[in-house]
Each structure stands twice: as C-alpha cells, then as structure tokens.
Amino acid sequence: MNEVLKFFIEYREAIFIIILSLFLGIEVISHVPSVLHTPLMSGANAIHGVVIIGAIIVMGHAHSPVPMIIGFLAVVLGTLNVVGGFVVTDRMLEMFRKKKSTK
Questions:
Q1: Model pLDDT for residues 37-92, shown as the tens digit of each residue
Q2: How deeply is 91 buried, as exposed, middle or buried, from its count of CB atoms within 10 A (0-12, 13-18, 19+)?
Q3: Which of 16, 34, 45, 67 could form a disulfide with 85 if both were Cys (CB 3.0 to 4.6 A apart)?
Q4: Dihedrals phi, psi of 9, to nearest 5 degrees
Q5: Segment (H or E) for 46
Q6: What is the pTM of this model?
Q7: 23-40 as b/e, with b when 16 or more CB fall inside 10 Å?
C-alpha cells in the first residue's frame, strides 16, 4: 500500500492530466453531432493503428515479461478497436447508400 501511495505522489501531475483529459474527452464526445460521427470514427481507427504499431515496437524491445504482456494486450485491444470501428463505420455508411429497388 505504501508503494501505491508513493507512486501516486510521485506521478500526481501526470495522473491529474489524465483525469482532466478523461473529463475533457467525455465532454467533447458528448457534443459531437451524429453527422460527424463517421469521420471521427475513421480518424480514431487511424490513431489506433498507430497505437498497434507502438505496442509492437514496445514488445520488440521488452526484456521482461511485464512489458511483453502489456504490449500484447495493447496489440489485441487496439486491433479489436480498429476492426470494430471499421465495422461500425461501414454499417453507418451503409445507411446513407441508395437502396436497390427490387422491382
């Protein structure tokens, strides 16, 4: 418990910035109109592609099991997010396509 408290005291500025970023992200995302959702989703997919590359690089430089496990989890979760984002984006774009008549 003492080590956890020491960690929070040592990195309190970074933790404060992360908490503020979380609240700012929630506020910004909640005010995005539905028309802009698809382009923003595509941008988020591109960002997560960079996260996947970074995680692969971290795994390549890992010398202990902990960074290897964290890197592997980042690759798996980032890949799931990218694939899911593209599926949702494709479904949303499908709504705007003209429907073929079945006459």
A1: 667 777 777 777 888 898 898 889 889 988 888 889 989 988 888 888 788 777 77
A2: exposed
A3: 45
A4: -70, -40
A5: helix 37-60
A6: 0.56
A7: eeeeeeeeeeeeeeebee
